[in-house]
Design a protein that fits this description.
440 residues; alpha+beta; Beta-galactosidase, Chain A, domain 5; Glycosyltransferase; 2 domains; 12-stranded antiparallel sheet; two-stranded antiparallel sheet; 9 helices; 22 strands; 30% helix
């Protein structure tokens, strides 16, 4: 049983395709260096391939499935379930504009396929047979409900154009060697997580997948984390994707613009700041892991480490030729002035704890990174007067001394999660990578 889903914010269409008979074997892969997913299903009667893809984003996003016959003849069934507002709203469904339209509130969906569909128990179902060499398209398109749906998409043309888009994009990759394919797949994933109009890159496309089955630590990750910025910029720049890196850096600068005291760790893809968290009681969650959460309350936390992440990202970009303009540097100076007065405060830290603020060792280390990279920016690009550099050098040394004194546990012979703690923390493995400690 294979699912064909398209989930935009607050939309919940789901289509299930499966053969009438027992599935003997299933194989799944991406087509070369693309985001075109191919799933092969074998039964006693034959085999089919499901080709799933989304053409490059336009005003009316599409998700397309082509069912291709590979061997014999396979009888298939489809069940389409459309619910808006996170599964709560059953839409008004009708045949119109050459397809099956579903309308509720501001949202509209239209399914276009040559296969006849009919309604059953508030769902849409269909039965069809695919023989070797046949290809049956299903195109699901979102549109604003107050407008007519866009013109019909030719699924085969869209597949050709989508494959060309990904092949052209992937050809820019400058890496080689044993791990080339794994790195390329990761880069494609980063591109797929990017909201093209703004350059914002979300951490994940999912919400409420539990840290453990049945647990309650189920967070919404469909947002942009500042601490991802440095790692993403470095990955994109080293791999030859300069335009994506530039767009991500510009998103970063726009998102944090304003008062440094109001800077958040998390933003929306357009730079939205209001990410209020609430629960959806009518959904059971993955494997009954409740609650299902929308939004993320960590956006209201004080996370000291993000200042280090930002300065590290800006420094890396500057070294790669993405130079700061004067207004951007003025913003960096304001961030550093805020950090000068606030680095000694406890925070919620990289793990976004909800049990009270502490003096997390990783957070203090990243405060050191912020001062260190600010000094390097002054030295390497001449972005500020020496008065900043000398003061930031002094504070950098002060932070380093404090972390070594208060963050190190003599009995454990290791740096620990927070001052006075005996708990180890994987985030502190970044110490040599950031330059806080020597790597040898």
């Amino acid at each position: 049983m294979l699912c064909f889903a398209a989930r935009r914010r607050r939309k919940w269409p789901l289509a299930v395709f499966h053969p009438d008979e027992k599935i003997e074997r299933t194989r799944r892969r991406y087509r070369d260096d693309t985001l075109i997913l191919e799933t092969e299903i074998e039964t006693k009667s034959g085999a089919v391939r499901l080709i799933d893809f989304m053409p490059p984003r336009g005003e009316n996003p599409d998700i397309i499935r082509i069912v291709e016959g590979l061997r014999g003849k396979v009888s298939m069934q489809m069940e389409l379930i459309i619910r808006f507002d996170y599964g709560q709203i059953v839409p008004w469904v009708r045949q119109r504009h050459g397809g099956l339209e579903a309308i509720a509130g501001p949202d509209g969906l239209i399914l276009r396929t040559p296969i006849e569909t009919y309604g059953k128990d508030l769902t849409t179902v269909a039965e069809f047979t695919v023989a070797k060499g046949e290809r049956v398209p299903f195109v699901l398109t979102w549109f604003a409900s107050h407008e007519d749906p866009p013109r019909k998409v030719n699924a085969e043309h869209a597949l050709r154009d989508t494959e060309k888009y990904w092949r052209d994009w992937s050809s820019q990759f400058q890496g080689k060697g044993e791990w080339r394919d794994a790195v390329m797949r990761s880069l494609i994933t980063l591109k797929g997580l990017t909201y093209a109009p703004t350059g914002g890159l979300v951490a994940a496309l999912t919400t409420s997948l539990p840290e453990e089955i049945g647990g309650v630590r189920n967070w919404d990750y469909r947002f942009c984390w500042l601490r991802d910025a440095a790692l993403i910029l470095l990955a994109l720049l080293r791999s030859g994707y300069r335009e994506e890196a530039k767009s991500w850096r510009q998103w970063l600068l726009r998102a944090i613009a304003g008062s440094p005291a109001q800077m958040q760790a998390i933003y929306g893809v357009r730079g939205e700041r209001r990410l209020e968290e609430f629960e959806i009681p009518w959904l059971s969650g993955y494997e009954n892991s409740k609650p299902v959460r929308i939004g993320n309350a960590a956006s209201n936390q004080f996370q000291l480490d993000v200042y280090g992440e930002i300065l590290a990202a800006i420094w890396q970009a500057d070294r790669a030729g993405l130079k700061l303009e004067d207004p951007d540097w003025a913003l960096m100076v304001q961030l550093m002035k805020f950090l000068e007065s606030n680095w000694q405060k406890p925070d919620e830290g990289i793990w976004e704890v909800r049990g009270g603020r502490k003096h997390f060792t990783h957070s203090k280390m990243m405060a050191w990174v912020a001062f260190d990279r600010a000094v390097k920016l002054v030295e390497e690009c001449g972005c500020a007067a020496d008065e900043h550099r000398e003061r930031w050098q002094r504070i950098r040394d002060q932070v380093h001394a404090e972390v070594c004194e208060r963050g190190y546990n003599v009995e454990k012979k290791a740096f620990t999660q927070f001052y006075g703690s005996d708990a180890l923390d994987a985030s502190l493995l970044l110490m040599p990578l950031t330059g806080f400690l020597a790597s040898h």
